[in-house]
Give the backbone structure.
Amino acid sequence: MSELISPITLLDDHGFWRRLFVKREDLLPKYFGGNKVRILASIFSEIDIQDITRVVSFGSRHSNHIRVLAAMMLERDIPCDLIILDDESKKSLAEGNELLATLYNANIHFCPSNEAHEYIDSHLCNLKKQGEKALFIPGGGHTVDGANGYVLAVDEIIDQTRGLDIDCIFLPTGTGTTQAGLIFGSKLRNWNVKIIGVTVARSPERCKKEIRSLLNELNKRYYTQFFFNDDDMEVVDNSEKPYGAIDKDIVDTIRAVAKSDGIVLDPIYNAKTFWKTERMIKDKEYSSCKNILYLNTGGTPNIFTKNFSEALRQ
Amino acid sequence: MSELISPITLLDDHGFWRRLFVKREDLLPKYFGGNKVRILASIFSEIDIQDITRVVSFGSRHSNHIRVLAAMMLERDIPCDLIILDDESKKSLAEGNELLATLYNANIHFCPSNEAHEYIDSHLCNLKKQGEKALFIPGGGHTVDGANGYVLAVDEIIDQTRGLDIDCIFLPTGTGTTQAGLIFGSKLRNWNVKIIGVTVARSPERCKKEIRSLLNELNKRYYTQFFFNDDDMEVVDNSEKPYGAIDKDIVDTIRAVAKSDGIVLDPIYNAKTFWKTERMIKDKEYSSCKNILYLNTGGTPNIFTKNFSEALRQ
């Protein structure tokens, strides 16, 4: 895992804050980068894969997790079944993350979102009957081992930001895995930094519940008894930008950050989070945060989709 | 330009050579990376853009050059006209590099390849009549200033490869700009390394002619009188893989390098060059080369196209 390092760059003055740095997880050097690279590398560093004959997971068609998992299973010569929770996608040519997962030899299944639970159970059951030893990876790599990828990343961030006085980190929060890792890691290193997640798919309450559960598990894993109160789990509601919808604000944000800093934000996770972050700073929220680190969690394959191309025409 | 640094990684043992390193130009941190980032940054570092009201260039629909130029003009607030030499593309939704150029606000024109010269002349003439001060950038950034981007990159490569005894560099050669820069830069630094271009679009003879012409111009620019013989301009014919065509070898190579090293090669420039490089090494050509640097010139947006997605189905 030592190769998994990403650079940090100082952004152009966006007008509203003192200094904004970006942790470029999009530049992690494997499988097209992004936070799922750290999360899944962390998960597989804990697993003895010798007896596993098959890996199963699921995600939306925008899921970076499915792409990275497919690549890592290709690397390990383990067949990989990916269940995409969208019955519409199967009708069209693979694009974005799904295209890469196909390239990486994953077996793609489709299933309507509301039948996911049943479908996965039945698929795992069938595999068992066929004598397969299948490993199920929760969507997004949402596990304590996954979160540990970001516990460890805190050391890298501390190293890279010495002297920069980073006082808060903004990031997109989907399943809460990345945020939980950062919260626990900064507590473990006694690093006084506020970790602020911005929702991309679930409600703040749901995210906080997931984060609290992961923090409890991390406490067990590290034999620690850290106490986390509600203030430690800051999650901002961004439900006005629904998951997967690409509107003018998102296109404008991607274009603006390309213009100011040459960085390509993805339309599903980071453009909307960056848009919200800018708005909050403009509205003088979190005014005590003077040196902000934005964690760009990657996902650029989601640029290259029919939806995004059509959104550009509007 | 100091931020424009890319990492070098050692590849997994591909079986045929002693050691293979990759210079990851695909990870250059701006505009989706690739060699055109260095080439165009070098060109614009030499130009006083104050009086320029418009920039005009052209390329194929796979062109990384048009994507990077569009981004750099967005950054500088200069309107950018890009002429895509393919009359078919305009009928379909923008994808890959064209999608990004559209996002970056470039004005995309289409014209059949055989009418390019006339079209560009007439377009530049019209702009002049309208009082515009238009700057024309040759396709691919094929200029002495562009090549100078890779003269300068040689210092970075020497720094990064100290002790590795690199004896040759393989790279895709389209217009010859990158290769000319590397040849001149290594001569300038008295670095004894063989630079081997593999054709992606033009014949070896055409490439060598272009390279020789750039080397002459670089001699003038640096007030040097280096002599280059034919051996200094090694260009390998790879015309059995025609420009833009995606066959099974290309898909297999992309998959194999993803599997062995997690690197995503593009289907238009690097996968076919890497395929050819592997074959040559397997056939014991260039047997004196023991420590090889492969220059991955980027271009990953070309993965996300209908053509590539369809090639995966075969």
Q: What stands out?
A: Chain B touches chain A at residues 3, 7, 9, 24, 27, 29-32, 71, 74-75, 93-96, 99-100, 102-105, 251, 254-255, 258-264, 300-301, 303-304, 306, 308-310, 312 (CB under 8 Å). The first strand of chain B starts at residue 8 and ends at 10.
